[in-house]
Design goal:
By secondary structure, this protein is of the alpha/beta class. The protein has one domain. The chain is about 20% helix and about 20% strand. It is built from eight helices and ten strands. The longest helix is centred in the middle third of the chain and has 13 residues. The protein is globular and about 55 Å long.
Amino acid sequence: MQEPTIQNLIDKSITKKTAKKSKELGYVLFEGQSQLNGDNIVAILVMNSTNEKTGNMAQLFIMNKDISPLEASRTKKDSAVCGDCKLRQSLGGSCYVSIFQSVQSVWNTYKRGRYSNLEIKDYGVLANRYIRFGSYGDPGALPIEILVKLKAVSINNTSYTHQWKKFPEMKSFSMASVDNKKEAVEAVKMGFRYFRVALPTDTLMKNEILCPNTTVGKSCLECGLCNGNKIKAKNIVIVIHGALKGRFKDETIKEVVETEIV
């Protein structure tokens, strides 16, 4: 019997779970050198979100400090916050993030001085929050102690990194972002759980499930599975999406992977 494709498995329904809104607009958590290439970057935690997919999680934006996100992408200086990610729009990739909307807006607000500075010793004010590491930018660009502290004070977090080969220490709180089954196998060997982007014609491996947002309508806040290897859960797969999804190509899709039981 033919295996069902990912598209065959998608069956949407709706569930809702909410988090309390914060009175604070957001915080500057870091201004300094990128761990990826040494350029100046800034990390802003925006406290409220209207993103229906994620739910009202605090959203971490990691951006170039001295040039706008749009300019950074245009000039390929986004490597300071995106590293060698193959999905970078500046490289012709299929990244779903609308840089000209929320990302540029957060950077503009930062330049107007609207966000308060928050030192790591004061992260307790973030307790009882759900936090999304990297609404834009790779959390691997930040010093590890910031991420560890955010993880410690939050109710739960989501996190994804394309820099998993460089920073294996992130596996306790972050998913490895992988773009094909071969990378998935490698990530598991390194101790990561992973989040795989796939074409709708692809199939699932045995230790994978579709993102619950696409199957049962759960928000990231409700689901909470994309938080590293400290939980014993299956790996997550999502169909490529966004305005640039047509750019995505997985050349390994028809290959026999080393194992289908990742």
